[in-house]
């Protein structure tokens, strides 16, 4: 079917010119180049370089990434780490199979690097980047073979440089895993490997994020329509194997027969869920968030539906099927009261594909429908606009990425400094107050720190506790956990005199923080941190040399040590 589409498109765009003059449209090699498409090396190298940069410079965007994934993985490796209520065997909402998949890399890294936990942390990040590179390369090459180099090249540029893809690609989250899977499933679909596309979709839903089933639905249903028997068998076998592995893994860690996949669905759907306890946002949240992470790329992706008649004629049905989850998912998630940036991760590659298709069709808006070789001035201007618009998108994305990295990387960098201050007794206590939600994981806390404790700075919800081996470790159902976000009296360290180190953010506010008492605390390290509330929205969102430093307001992210007499 893909060969037929290529032939039809070639016939529509490359007939002999009615004019006697020679143009590049007359070159016989053009259709051959298009059929051959981009080589594998270009996207592999381009994505590989950018994902390496992402793995080494990415910040932690969401505390759920730390406490629901990095911390349990740390516990599996080192027998210490924070546990959330979702990992209590009473609720069992999180999949240990997903963690074990990443332990494939983390465990050998532990053997290789030993006590250098930071290196293990980055080894896992490199693995995440590798998955992103492979899956997105398949998508780009598939687009090139089916629709030509231009669409594939635009998509590749956006996958590499848009802020959303740059950060999501190396985030340790099930929604990122589903993003990898939708890239791979879409690429396989374009390559007419429908059974494999359905199998990958099952992996993305079961091993990744169960709710992302809506994103995979169009590709899965159409694949079943095209090749029902092979696609059904591939999807069914993959699903049964993964569900069985998940159940056995959950039994091994939770200590009872249960299914984290089913529990999660029941809690959020059948059980009504209480995600609103963790914050709600308005219906425009994802539109604003989409623009922040993709700027004009997101606007063009939204305009894709307006280009429907041209796009359908130019690209056929397959592209519409692949991109349709973008709008299904946005509509569905916008109706949910609890919203998070990471919930959009699965559709990030589709945003890039949709925007690229719109940019490529710019000239078709003005071309005479009876003359596919219209070379009027307005068509030439539209062609000129394609690289201009792409450049604006990429520059804006680069400015956004730089702003986030330079503005908010202090928490990770401050905790890295700890390992250079091991001149204290083993068993030291690191205390964190209101900055608990920016804790970058125990992978960045050296072994001489015996305990990380929360101190009460006014937060009224339930905080993570250390996994309790005495109660049964992963199989425990600690009494201090609940699914109502009700704080436990045991979650705070009440005697601050037990703290050896203190991490806090000092902003320009009319009140003093604990670390302001210089008779008690000495500053070990301090790094600037962008003050979101006092900085102008435009200047904090995009890195503009000189103006970014001049217009924005910064606090100091500090690592403090108790003064010894």
Automatic annotation (TrEMBL):
Gene Ontology biological-process entries: ERAD pathway; protein N-linked glycosylation
Principal location class: endoplasmic reticulum
EC annotation from Swiss-Prot or TrEMBL: 2.4.1.-
Compositionally biased spans, kind Basic and acidic residues: 24-34
Compositionally biased tracts (Low complexity): 10-23
Segments for region (Disordered): 1-34
Annotated Gene Ontology cellular component terms: endoplasmic reticulum membrane
TM segment ranges: 120-142, 154-174, 194-219, 231-254, 293-311, 318-337
Entry keyword set: Endoplasmic reticulum, Glycosyltransferase, Membrane, Transferase, Transmembrane, Transmembrane helix
Subcellular location: Endoplasmic reticulum membrane
Pathways involved: Protein modification; protein glycosylation
Membrane topology note: Multi-pass membrane protein
Classification via PANTHER family: ALPHA-1,2-MANNOSYLTRANSFERASE ALG9 (PTHR22760:SF2), GLYCOSYLTRANSFERASE (PTHR22760)
Protein name stated in the entry: Mannosyltransferase
Organism encoding this protein: Vicia faba
